[in-house]
# Entry
Amino acid sequence: MITPTLALIQLLNGLQFGVTLFLFTAGLTLVLGVMNFMNLAHASLYMIGAYCAVAIGAATGSYLVGVVLAVPATALAALVIEWLVLRRLYERHHLDQVLATFGLIMFLNEAVRLVWGTAGLYVTIPEFLAGNLTLAPGVLYPVYRLFIIVVGCAVALALWFVIARTRIGMWVRAAADKPEMVEGVGIDVRLLFRGVVIVGAGLAALAGALTGPLFSVEAGMGDSTLILALVAIVIGGIGSIRGSFFAALIVGVVDAMGRVFLPPLFAAFLARPVADAIGPATGSVLIYLLMIGVLLARPEGLFAKASR
Amino acid sequence: MTTGTAIARSRASRGSWLVLLLLALAPPLAAFADNAYVVPFLTRVAIFGLAATGLNLALGFGGLTSLGHAAFMGVGAYAVGMLMASGVDNGWLHIAVVLVAGALTSLVIGALALRTSGISFIMLTLAFAQLLYFIATGLKTWGGDDGFSFRGRSNFGSPAWLAGDVTFYYVVLACLALGVLCVSRIVASRFGAALAGIKSNEARMASIGLHPYRYKLVAFVVSGTICAVAGGLLAELTQFVSPSYMHWSRSAELLLMVLLGGMASGVGPLLGAVVYLCLEEALGRFTTHWQAPMGLILVAVVLFAREGIADAFGRSWSGLTRGARRTPAAPPPP
# Structure
């Protein structure tokens, strides 16, 4: 039954998912906006981040250390991938980029299966983050999910500060609009691009590592997140950090709410068998309907600058 | 239309007929080798060849990058599967329903998605395909996530006629030949010339009085309908239908086949499907981790064989026959 408690919990679940989705999306949207580069292999970096966290966590005995060290480890992996493959694709057509990075996903998914096996790995939540917090009388919520929301929001804030208030952020924004001009005033745009790819990889790794204990860590875990991230990017407007933040939250909340509240809504208005048949599907369908609506009404995205 | 492209086109369709001829010779050879597995495998190859050929009408000749064509295959597959499972086995009816369902779905999706272009278009086709995918997973009476299986194949006069694997294979090949012919005729027609013009410069074509939207929509609908036919054939082959037919990675695979073969030519997609599925099969024999070498091959193709395999073959072929080292690339449109 729909109760305010359930609504609150689903809202928090949606926010938690939205925040991790944002961490994933931030790098992808920057790379797409700044370099016009469609990097599907971002999904693999998310997965590599989670596996690094598991491996380092097992070696050091603390999953949190694993999460923290997974970020530089994955950034290093991204540096290698960038040097070997990605940098040769910047000047190419979107289709070539999609094909090659899809090939990378296939390769890296299998490589992970070779190293860690096909079965998913399960990680336990660190002890001091386990358990529930009482938000209101009778309303319990897992501490770990709240922790993810806090970390995600902090990173988002830091990222916004870097992009909007620092010199490097200014270069990135300028390079997104007119790379030739930025080159012209003596800034190494290639180096800037590489930096964006690597920071994006670190953020994706953080998302993957934080999500690890909630689901199982397995090959291909980033693939469905990738599709939702693309949804968030087009809803928020390509290349916009602020847009992708709000869009990721919207996607997360709409998804979580839709799953729980649409089926009873249909049950109330439709015949039982019909409602049963379409109910569960509509929960997932809602975000795609949202995206289709946004793209048809405002193809440039909800949060894109008006002057473009 | 310059003679150069006309010649390239006739050579391209000649390549398709060569591949088709080779495919047609396969069953007697398979019977000779006493391998019952070959014919169903080649049927699959031919079905995906048909789907890739259909996709290429939109992608290669229309410049429309669709990441949702697996949905049309799914629509065709579900149409056949649902009719068969409910006991309606009339083959002519199946053909009619698949064509109508495929055309209607691609008309609705195309009409909306073509209002945008670029990345928005890619994402809209993906969104519509995901929509259909999740609707299919929600169809509990039809197995939901797991899909459903049925017995037998379409009935054209007698239920046994299409049941044999070899007969079915030749029917699929005939469909493939029809699809290749259909696409090559469209590309060679006045409509195809206008489509090529729209692909290279939409504003210019609009300014001489054409409606780019209508041309692109027709190309998209024909392309989607061909994929629906391929989907219907796939359902008949496996006698099983599930939402996985519409998964976005299936759409990506179709794109891969076209790009692997090369989208500039008629034979490219067919060749791409043959190479992709044979690689999958051959690598799968060696290791269950076939996706690892496959991924590397895809990366290598993009980095080193920019125009796809068909072009690479064509070059070495003309190099062998005419002594020319390589055909010069077409000059960019002014």
DSSP finds 13 helices and two strands in chain B.
